């Protein structure tokens, strides 16, 4: 029987998530720990998940190809195969802390084990995640307010439409981090060198330009408080395919829950360029 999230958290030492190896973190998630993965396994890349029946895989593949900043693909599985080259021996059906199940574009459940809903023809796309560059931001002395506050990152649906592909269309989703104004240039430079995990911000400053009315009411994740001198900085987000699911209504899909990512065995520095 799986331990509850509260039981697992009571067993963890404060700050231990940061230094937990990805394989050990996946084992915890497999056994029942249900927490956002920001601040976990520092130095290793994390990925978003979208898995669809094989007859929708080409649509997802083309949608990602046409929208590489919100949807940078790092791996694609063979139909029915729940493994990934990003973490040999891992299982995409069990090794994320929380999943979402979709029917006809509607979210029908959130679960911690997708084995029972995984179809034999599912194709899984592992998409780069901005949590992967947080280690480098932290190393540069750039504070992460959501980590400091013990919260999931804030995510918002924007007024920017993605390039449609096949039967898929929808708006871009962004993640927001409050960055001290004096450090914004450093944050842009560091993340621009990591295009496989969303790259440079898509916007800095006024959220209204992205169609965001209230930063205190994110569409996904948690609200995060700013500190004096902070400005909001927005990165393209791998939850974008979930917005496309809602807009395009494919018959079935399984995704990660926003902020509850897959921890890979790939060092995040492998995704730096230049």
Description:
With 274 residues, the chain is an alpha+beta fold. Helix content is 23%, strand content 26%. It contains eight helices and eleven strands. The protein has helices spanning 5-11, 16-19, 22-31, 54-66, 134-139, 145-148, 184-192, 240-248, and strands spanning 44-53, 73-76, 99-103, 106-111, 122-128, 154-161, 171-180, 203-204, 230-236, 252-256, 262-267. Strands 1, 2, 3, 4, 5, 10 and 11 form a seven-stranded antiparallel sheet that branches. The radius of gyration is 17 Å and the shape is globular. The protein starts with a helix and ends in a 7-residue tail after the last strand. Residues 1-11 have low confidence and may be disordered.
Question: How does the SSE layout of this entry go?
Answer:
Layout: H1 5-11, H2 16-19, H3 22-31, E1 44-53, H4 54-66, E2 73-76, E3 99-103, E4 106-111, E5 122-128, H5 134-139, H6 145-148, E6 154-161, E7 171-180, H7 184-192, E8 203-204, E9 230-236, H8 240-248, E10 252-256, E11 262-267
């Amino acid at each position: 029987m799986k331990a509850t999230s509260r039981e697992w958290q009571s067993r963890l030492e404060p700050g231990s998530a940061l230094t937990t190896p990805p394989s050990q973190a996946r084992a915890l998630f497999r056994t029942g720990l249900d927490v956002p993965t920001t601040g976990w396994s520092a130095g290793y890349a994390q990925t978003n998940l979208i898995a669809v029946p094989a007859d929708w895989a080409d649509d997802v593949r083309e949608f990602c190809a046409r929208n590489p900043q919100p949807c940078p693909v790092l791996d694609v599985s063979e139909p029915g195969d729940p493994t990934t080259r990003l973490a040999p021996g891992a299982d995409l059906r069990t090794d994320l802390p929380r999943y979402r199940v979709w029917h006809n574009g509607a979210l029908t459940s959130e679960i911690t084990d997708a084995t029972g809903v995984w179809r034999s023809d599912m194709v899984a796309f592992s998409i780069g995640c901005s949590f992967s560059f947080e280690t480098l931001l932290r190393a540069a002395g750039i504070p992460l307010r959501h980590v400091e506050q013990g919260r999931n990152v804030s995510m918002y649906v924007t007024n920017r439409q993605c390039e449609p592909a096949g039967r898929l269309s929808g708006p871009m989703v962004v993640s927001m981090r409050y960055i001290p104004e004096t450090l914004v240039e450093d944050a842009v430079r560091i993340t621009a060198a990591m295009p496989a995990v969303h790259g440079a911000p898509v916007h800095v400053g006024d959220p209204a330009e992205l169609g965001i009315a209230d930063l205190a009411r994110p569409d996904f994740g948690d609200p995060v408080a700013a500190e004096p001198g902070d400005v909001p900085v927005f990165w393209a987000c791998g939850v974008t395919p979930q917005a496309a699911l809602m807009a395009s209504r494919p018959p079935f899909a399984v995704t990660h829950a926003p902020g509850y990512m897959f921890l890979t065995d790939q060092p995040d520095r492998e995704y730096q360029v230049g």
